[in-house]
Amino acid sequence: MAYLGPRLGRSRVFIPGVSAFRLLGTLGMADMGLAVSRSPLERLDFDNVALKKLPLDSSEEPGQRQVKGACFSLVKPQPLTKPRFVAVSHEALALLGLSGEEVMNDPLGPEYLSGSKVMPGSEPAAHCYCGHQFGQFAGQLGDGAACYLGEVKVPPGQDPELLRENPSGRWEIQVKGAGLTPFSRTADGRKVLRSSIREFLCSEVMFFLGVPTTRAGSVVTSDSRVIRDVYYSGNPRHERCSVVVRIAPTFLRFGSFEIFKRADEHTGRQGPSYGRDEIRGQMLDYVIEMFYPEIQQNHPDRVERNVAFFKEVMRRTARLVALWQCVGFCHGVLNTDNMSILGLTLDYGPYGFMDRFDPDFICNASDNSGRYSYQAQPAICRWNLVKLAEALAPELPPDRAENVMDEYLDLYNGFYLENMRKKLGLLKKDEPEDEILITELLQTMHNTGADFTNTFRSLSQISCPTEGESEEEEQLVKKATDLLLEQCASSEELKAANKPTMDPRELAMLLSMAQSNPALFQMISDRTTIARQLERLSKLKDLMETSQEELKTQQAEEWGRWITRYRKRLAREMEGHSDAQAAQEERVTVMDSANPRVVLRNYIAQNAIEAAENGDFSEVQRVLKVLEKPFSSQPGLELPAWVGGGPATERGERDEGDEQLRESTARNPVPYDSKPPAWAHEICVT
């Protein structure tokens, strides 16, 4: 792993007027030994402002309970047996002024960063929030597995850009998987290697992709065990308890303000702090003063301040989801309790980066209705913002909130088109037809089953038309077409993708019910779901009647038409440029910095998880290193670590009963930047 030297650690203390000799003379040998061996994590400068400024439930009563009139509850993290590091992010730990190398080599590091030991100055607590889950108000939720450890003051010399994004001057640290809290409900407050590695890796790759996100500092695993039914198949197995460290300016979310909600008309549930309107005002003051200081300073009128705050949250959310769409990221569980009040990607569960482009892509196998599909994300984020506005009333007048929300769609489209133009290398001119060109590109990708990430990455290799080209236009279009055909799906892949997910008998029954008993039909299904199943059947029928050769010809014709239009648009882009070569180089540079070479595809994460469950953590560390430079080629890091037969660590850590997951070394390896292998389509994330 790359070495990050000691950074910003307070290793020397100078006391004015006291000589170094005299100072040393006041220390006994035991004190000196303690000073030398002190853990770097014991030097963190905590300033837990949230617990000072927001109501705190001081009860440490064990077990699930309603927490009324409080935003946080004090908790006691539960220690793990033999905690040890799987991986650390040097870049994320540097936010706290820590050296990743120093933390990795610290004997107390795994204990402190799993919650097994409490760092000096840390005040473990769990946050109370509510949420709308899959469109229904769920009442009290809260940190069921996450645990606030405290807020660390930003170390001297931090990047000014980071300080601009985090004006509070502190970083909140959480551990996720440290045991029971008042909000654990029927669960045990623990996380396992699978979920911890996925959250750790995705938190970091999103940052390096340029998408606003919470960060992850480390993953710790242990000899402590919990029972999990991986596939909900009735075959539970023991898995290792693991903990991920999360870092952000704050983990407050839309649902934080829903604890004041009156009884919901559909579910009957209400927020635990209903009627405590003074706490809502207190929370608003805290969030705006700490994280939106410019709004606080520029709006002395309270209502105007709150409107400006909501407008900025709306703007950040629109920008965030536009960036998700442009990298093919699907969150999977866009409930209001998973939406950051700072516009950060928050809570990485059953997320997924799209492989074959499909606007109906659903990454969460539990999302049967497709509520949180890829193409639904912009509308769902708008829906969640409306729920936030409702939660902020009367501090935020409803009519003012409605006016703000009227701007959402235009803002989102603006952010989306701005990023898409970069991805297509349309840098000099904004033409109205660009939106049509982008739509036709996505439609062609969908029709041909093209890989989302690799198709966009390939576009920079399509040349701009120039005067005196040595090759004919037809030859250049064919060359570009052949390039993109490499990313298209085969006939068998498309047949598998278009196979209906509903049993034919169930589909026939629902179609009959829609005609004979519409009221009952509306209770158990919806027309969108049925239409999607019928569309799949229609496509499957067409594919069954088309040979592979015919399909490839169709795909080539579709791509040829789009590439011809694209090159005409590039020609207009070049008009007025005296140095065509320089313009072309600039275009390629911008495109290759907007279209990643590698993202965290499910199969890449799965390989790392399986290796770690076998006791080999090197693949997690290797994948992190690759993902830290997602836009660059990294010689020597093209393939998984196990391909070269590299040394495995701690081989004795195999989990029981999971041989079906131990197949990575037997699979044909593919580079990190390739289309997914066939077995990847069998991965199920819930």
UniProtKB/TrEMBL annotation:
Membrane-spanning intervals of the chain: none
Chain coiled-coil ranges: 530-557
Top-rank taxon: Eukaryota
MF terms in GO: ATP binding; metal ion binding; nucleotidyltransferase activity
Cofactors, names only: Mg(2+)
Keywords: ATP-binding, Coiled coil, Magnesium, Metal-binding, Nucleotide-binding, Nucleotidyltransferase, Transferase
Xref: InterPro entries: SelO (IPR003846)
Sequence similarity: Belongs to the SELO family.
Protein name from the UniProt record: Selenoprotein O
